[in-house]
Amino acid sequence: MSGAAIDLYHTLWSPPSRAVRMIGRAVGAQFNLIECNLMAGEHMKPEYLKMNPLHTVPTINDNGFYVWESRAIGHYLINKFAPGTSLIPTDLRRRALYDQMLFFDYSLLFSFSTMTRKVLLGAKQLDRSDVKRCHECLRLLNSFLSESEYLVGDEITMVDYSAAASIAGCQTGMFGISGHPHTQRWFNKVRNEIDGFDEINEPGVQMIQAFMSMATPPDPKPSKL
Questions:
Q1: Which member of 69, 90, 133, 194 has the greatest number of CB atoms within 10 A?
Q2: 58 and 111 assigned to the same domain
Q3: Does pLDDT of 108 surpass 50?
Q4: What's the pLDDT score for residue 62?
Q5: What tens digit of pLDDT does each residue of 181-218 get?
Q6: Residues 180 and 118 in one domain
Q7: Catalytic residue among 2, 14, 86, 129
Q8: Could you tell me the CATH number of the domain that includes residue 21?
Q9: Is residue 148 flagged as an active site residue?
Q10: What is the pTM of this model?
């Protein structure tokens, strides 16, 4: 299906924004990319709140039809441009596992975005509980991927696009995935398979790593005497 380009309000460092761009490319959607400057408060302007009352990115405007929340946008794009594709499973049980992983992906993203947001707002030191939560998400992800090639069986789905955008910023430093071999194997695989992965993700990943370098690790937990 062809037509006018869809307005996509995004930020480079936002994993959900990058996930939507990758999904759009996979299904042949054309975007008019509009950078939303969150630090300048552009997401709080009345015209933006009309499209997205939750004032988040990404948001799309498809000829007056507004959709926010990256997974909802991804489903919309797939159903519009590539209906019936294997990116969204149709088998009952496989779809249940897919939905399950979508909810896990949200918790994975939320853990890392919460920590990043605190640094953006001026935190000088990472919170120990945030760091612990992120490591637990990585541990769980590695466990899930020990049983299959992708997050839902042996075929790539939209949830792989979404999760990979979040994990792209965790390749080095405190949250490097080298200690999670199944996640490392999966990430390398989807990175090679998803068209434009590095082109879309690398600028935002560099921004995230620059943000996080401004904060020091949490103090070691005091040992019990």
A1: 194
A2: no
A3: yes
A4: 98
A5: 999 999 999 999 999 999 999 999 998 888 888 888 88
A6: yes
A7: 14
A8: 3.40.30.10
A9: no
A10: 0.92
